[in-house]
Specification:
Layout (H helix, E strand, L loop, with lengths): L2 E6 L6 H11 L4 E7 L13 H14 L7 E6 L5 H11 L5 E3 L3 H9 L3 E3 L11 H9 L10 H9 L2 H9 L15
Parallel strand pairs: 1-2, 1-4, 2-3, 4-5
Helix pairs in contact: 2-6
């Protein structure tokens, strides 16, 4: 049995994430979906709580007909010490043999601990980007076609766009201009 790990912030979970999850599940028996920065919420970069992100993912995977025994969704709070980060992740998750990530530091840290590491395919990264989806929400532009319907339902339920607009009043907005690059 091959169990793998995928960590992301999923702010919000979008069609690019869904495609990655499906591709990974075609290669492994079970997938641990780690909700990174689980302690963060109510900011421009992390507007949704870990619980809300879990709902987005679980409802979407269920709607896609992916059996619940194929995945685990685990919140993973940040620790600010790279030397212990992999052990921290391991302490919160079921055992796994493979890690999917494109982050060079995460790749190195997991390899140093003996894990097989595979890169992720980038699925239309310019279109499917949490940063761009959040910016579209703030600019009152169309964003719903970029996320699965169940994700939009959760965002509506928690008044996520309103929350994002509220927290934007105290944060920098420079990267929200169309075509600009986030800091």
């Amino acid at each position: 049995m091959l169990r793998a790990l995928l960590i992301g912030r999923f702010q919000p979970f979008h069609y690019g994430h869904l495609e990655i999850v499906k591709r990974i599940l075609s290669e492994v028996d079970e997938l641990i979906i780690g909700i990174g920065s689980a302690q963060a919420s109510h900011t421009l970069d992390n507007p949704f709580t870990a619980g809300e992100r879990i709902l987005m993912i679980a409802k979407t995977l269920q709607a896609e007909g992916i059996p619940g025994d194929r995945y685990y969704i685990i919140p993973i709070p940040d620790v600010w010490n790279n030397a212990i980060w992999v052990d921290h992740v391991k302490s919160l998750t079921p055992p796994f043999q493979r890690v999917y990530t494109n982050n060079p530091l995460a790749q190195r840290l997991f390899r140093e601990k003996g894990f097989e590491v595979k890169p992720l395919p980038l699925i239309n990264r310019t279109r499917f980007s949490g940063t761009e989806i959040r910016a579209k929400m703030l600019r009152d532009e169309s964003w719903r076609e970029l996320v699965p319907p169940k994700v939009a339902e959760v965002i509506d339920m928690v008044k996520g766009v309103e929350r994002l607009k509220d927290v934007s009043k105290s944060d920098k907005l420079s990267y929200l201009e169309p075509g600009s690059v986030p800091p």
